[in-house]
Amino acid sequence: MGLEGHPTATAPRREAPVADAVPGLPLPALRRGSAPALLTQADITAEIEAEHAVSAGLRARGLAVPATRNDFAPYRSSILRHPTKDPVQADPEAVELLAPVFGERDVHALEADLTATGAGEPVGERIVVTGRVVDGEGRPVRRQLVEVWQANAAGRYAHRRDQHPAPLDPNFTGVGRCLTDDDGTYRFTTIKPGPYPWNNHRNAWRPAHIHFSLFGTQFTQRLITQMYFPGDPLFALDPIYQSTTDPVDRELLVARYDHDVTQHEWCTGYRWDIVLTGTHRTRLEEPAEPGEEHA
Ligand SMILES: [Fe+2]
Q1: Which of 69, 76, 206, 283 is catalytic?
Q2: What's the rounded Cα separation, in Å, for the pair 94 and 135?
Q3: Disulfide check for 112: which of 101, 178, 204, 213 has CB 3.0–4.6 Å away?
Q4: C-alpha radius of gyration, the chain, whole number
Q5: Is-above-0.70 flag for pTM?
């Protein structure tokens, strides 16, 4: 299973009434919390469809539905750990005295090449992933620390908590970082990650993805999301991807293949922009409790 960071802030939400706050509306069909091992993919798929039907019905009535459901029942662990209270307000200056910081000179250019950390080449499909970090007006977010982490080509994380029987790659740690340039562009060279199993239900598999963190200017602004690859057959089955209930928003989580990024006899290329605000913003994950992990 994969690992998550702990974002502590989110971009603004839409300002219309939110579905969960409307009295008398039906709750999503299933919240029974069944034991994951007894649940089949068909059970989870039926729950996803029921949740989406509720969300679509609310939107049809002109009600705003949270773009990403933090209490999305088919994603079992989200039920117990999703935030149920407003964030605690903190003095930003006081937080800065304790929170992690970094200097631009701390980030080396080689850290953006995840294929360069070992003694040899990692196994798998070499790719470049690049894109821009922009605000809702398309303005670049410059000097932004972008961090990524991912499974290797076999779908295994280089972490002691990931024990599923796929090979580790001695030449691949799966972590990297870089700063955006003056145009807000980030760029990583890496290996295309494989899908991997997780314990949400029997025979549950995550679509291939790369975790992204945007640090902001201090730790309290950190934002986290996942990037997916186009055409993945696991999209329809994955309750994390499907917890973003609007299909347009889900598409924004998927990179596109870009032949102009692809390099002759070297790698294929993908482009994925991250929009921090506005109606087309990239959907971000809510904070997890310290010490928790999920896929
Ligand atoms: Fe993951």
Answers
A1: 206
A2: 27
A3: 178
A4: 19
A5: yes
